[in-house]
Specification:
Blueprint lengths: L2 E11 L18 E8 L5 E9 L6 E9 L8 H13 L5 E6 L2 H9 L3 E7 L3 E6 L8 H13 L5 H12 L1
Helix pairs in contact: 1-2, 2-3, 3-4
Pfam families: Acetyltransf_1
Protein name: GNAT family N-acetyltransferase
InterPro entries: Acyl_CoA_acyltransferase, GNAT_dom
């Protein structure tokens, strides 16, 4: 499969996604900025994310949701889209933040160049940012520290195995 990424709207885009193929599909029906990944052979959307200005930081933007089609999870498409979109967002904003609630999203954000801030939000979501600030020394140690936060949680068997493998690497 060959893919391409695109920002499809900066503020008021909506997308209709199949609830059986995408987690959080309903969230993408709400107006916000959107970026998508499409299969260039079929034109099908295979990953999507939404973003909006960060109410707490006038020079910042937040990625609100991102997901890959269920049958393509684990293929690196979500982290690729997150990297592409965050680079485009940094052309307009000083900081991109994302809050994640599972180790898979944490790993995808890390691969896309995000660094855990050491902060949490909401229901124990880890807050990551891009670019890293000058005070973010020891980003490898910070990554492991964030991953350990997930190890202390009630995880599915798959998530637990994933975290154990990552902590051994």
């Amino acid at each position: 499969m060959s893919i391409e990424h695109e920002v499809v709207g900066w503020s008021d885009a909506t997308l209709e996604l199949d609830d059986t193929d995408f987690a959080y599909a309903g969230k993408f029906r709400l107006p916000s900025g959107k970026a998508v990944t499409r299969d260039t052979d079929t034109g099908d959307t295979v990953a999507v994310l939404s973003f909006s200005p960060d109410r707490a930081d006038p020079d910042g933007v937040r990625v609100r949701y991102f997901t890959a089609r269920d049958d393509l999870r684990g293929e690196g498409i979500g982290s690729s889209l997150l990297g592409f979109a965050s680079d485009r967002l940094l052309e307009r904003y000083g900081t991109v933040r994302i809050s994640v609630n599972n180790p898979y999203a944490y790993e995808a954000a890390h691969k896309a160049g995000f660094v855990w801030t050491g902060d949490t939000a909401g229901l124990a979501e880890l807050v990551l940012r891009k670019p890293a600030e000058d005070t973010d020394t020891g980003t490898d140690e910070r990554y492991v520290e964030g991953l350990r936060r997930f190890a202390d949680r009630d995880l599915t068997d798959g998530e637990e195995g994933f975290v154990r493998r990552k902590l051994r690497d």
